Amino acid sequence: MGIYIDLYTILPASYYERVRHKLQFCIAALKFFHEGLFALQDAELWIGAPSEASGGTLKETVKTTDPYLAGEILEKFLSNLPYDEVSQSIVMLNGVWDFDDVKLGGYFSVNFSKVWRDVYHDIEIGAYAKKDFADLVDILWVTQDMESLSRKFIAALRKTAINRSLGLQTMFFSRGVPTEEDPTNLMGAYLHGERRGLLRIFYKALSKTKDPEVASRVPALNDTFFVKTLAAEEIVNERLVKEMEEVMIIERKGDSATYIAKNQDSFANLYEEVSKTILKPGMGKLPTAEHVKNLIESGLKKSS
Amino acid sequence: MAFFLKEKVPLFDGKPPDARYLLDDEAQQKLLGFSHNSFLKIADEYDHYPGCKHAVIEHKSKNLRDSVKQLEATTKELVKAHKNVDVTVIVAEKISHTESKIYKKTKDHRLYDKRRGAFFQIRAGNHFVDILVYYTVEVSKMWEEYSRRLDRWAST
Fold first, then answer.
1. C-alpha A159: how far from its chain's center?
2. pLDDT-derived band at A36, boundaries 50, 70, 90
């Protein structure tokens, strides 16, 4: 729990090449925090799941405190495994987060296994909960200048993408695993599509609520079309910018943007405001799914 | 001490634990015979319940994968220190929609792996123990019922 990263394919490459590049991304992320905040203790390669209790098998342990050496050994090991095993594997780079007074066990993990990737993303950076710190993000926000740290971290990962087959798609700083239905756990996000990316997150969450006004319209609505239409409206941008700047620090770069919460409730407040002032009004005059269904049926009857 | 007041543990057979070790406290870890540096990936509590049931408990879980690893590492430390573990427990607000792709809480509170079609279990020496999941609202209800029982008993 903490930082969740997803990558996307920039250049065509073989499966093993992409595995290597994904691992290199993780090592680059680890290197960014290494010696300052995180000290590597060992690296593990699991097959099936990242623990015995979850039915996983520990295939390899690398005892080293050097991230590059760990990366090299794991890379070699993965390249010699059959596809069936690599596609079920999870790499755990274990170590200690050191925030002066507070030390937490933590990890950088790369999920090559699809089932684990669907839940915990391509790369997960986390810490094991302890006392008042339920999450890595909690302690980062208390002890670090997150505006500066996130900017440098994202820049470091974007640089990693140069000459590789993968690029940085999204990054979430989240208290617990990010979930579509609840964006209030978010503390930060790096997204493509600038405001459209953020609107999409809030729309997805709203679309999963039981609000009858929303639930009756969502089934007949194409989310990409809806979000794209909203994002193109000047009035939406005016409202969004006003609301966002009150609760977040925003850094734009090209078509992407980084949103950093000023406090724990920033995303919750913004989600509430965006729902109230943009998404629900935008949806208000749309036909309900029932109405669309009736129109389809009556159209069919007329033509017969 | 504030921890005791803040975090409620599940009751077993309607009874609360009669001894609680808070594993964030290094002194209590030493008392249990944990090895040096083991505090980094450790669960929150090790409790003894009436009927000689020993439970390892992780509170406020926000990531089930981490919680399972913490319970597993703690059980390993306890077994190494010749302590019994009969059950492990995760207390969570809920299982999120995302994590529910892998995890399911059964009616008897056991943590089920949808992927494998099997229960999550932790090796404790020569046997395996279950991982139970209780939602905080369920734990609160257990304590309310316990408190009502105490009141009834006191009034008779």
1. 18
2. confident
Do the beta carbons of residue A244 and residue A250 sit within 8 Å?
yes
* ipTM (interface predicted TM): 0.88
Is residue A247 a contact partner of residue A261, using CB atoms and an 8 Å limit? Answer: yes
Distance from the Cα of B13 to chain A's closest Cα (Å) equals 26
A141-156 residue pLDDT tens: 989 998 899 989 999 9
Q: Is the dihedral of CA A285, A291, A292, A298 positive or negative?
A: negative
**Does A177 contact B118 at a Cβ distance shorter than 8 Å?**
no
Mean of pLDDT values over A175-184: 90
List all residues 6 or more positions away from A69 whose beta carbon is below 8 Å from its beta carbon. Answer: A62
Residue B67, Cβ neighbours under 10 Å: how many? Answer: 28
> Quick one: angle between helices A15-33 and A67-79, nearest 10?
170
Examine the pLDDT at A40 and tell me if it is beyond 70: yes
Q: Which residue has the higher pLDDT, A177 or A302?
A: A177
Radius of gyration of chain A (CA): 22
The reported pTM is 0.91
pLDDT band of residue B152 (cuts 50, 70, 90) is confident
Q: What are phi and psi of A236, to 5 degrees?
A: -65, -45
The secondary element (H helix, E strand) that includes residue A289 is: helix A289-303
Say if CB A127 and CB A176 are below 8 A apart: no
Nearest CA distance, B93 vs chain A (angstrom): 11
- 3-class DSSP state for residue A189? strand
Residue type, A110: V
Distance CA B113, CA A117 (A): 16
Give every strand in the sheet of A166-174, ordered side by side: A57-62, A38-47, A89-99, A102-111, A123-127, A2-9, A166-174, A186-192, A256-261, A248-253
**Exposed (0-12), middle (13-18) or buried (19+): which is B152, by Cβ within 10 Å?**
exposed
pLDDT digits (tens, 9 = 90+) for A241-286: 888 888 887 777 777 889 999 888 999 999 999 999 999 999 999 9
Three-point CA angle A166, B66, A128, nearest 5°: 95
Mean pLDDT of A46-51: 96
Q: Which residues of B touch A (CB under 8 A)?
A: 24, 39-42, 44, 58, 60-63, 65-66, 68-72, 96-99, 101-102, 113, 115-116, 118, 120-123, 131
Q: pLDDT (tens digit, 9 = 90+) per residue, B79-113?
A: 999 999 999 999 999 999 999 999 999 999 999 99
Parallel/antiparallel/unpaired status of strands B127-135 and B87-92: parallel
